[in-house]
Amino acid sequence: MAPAEEEKRDYTAERNTRAIPIARELLKRLANREDLVMGDASQEEMIEYYSKVYVEDIIPYLLEKEVRIGDIGYIFKIMLQVINYTQDRTALTIELLYDKVTAKKWGKTDTDDVTVTELDQVLKEHFAEEKIAKTVDN
Does one domain contain both 87 and 130? Predict the structure, then answer.
């Protein structure tokens, strides 16, 4: 390749062209495993299970696709990116909607407009028997 052509190459686009389809396929393969271990499994169970996944599914696919060593970290990074962005967007959206509904229930436009006095009154009305409410003048 001539030096001028080399300067015009978009290495990021090339890496994405290689890596994104592989990341998508790996996400599908993991998500579709009926025996996917997650949650309350012990560290030993996780290590044993994911070692099995690596041997049975991950490494054969990486070999089949002739994945570059330099792309492996990036592939897993973008897999996590999908999960992290989905988690962040979901949590933020639910939090914003919750705040909006809560403000409306208080008759406010924003939850920041609720006063400590108003909060204290609700606590007295609904939780006094549980001794949760503490009034300002107590």
Answer: no
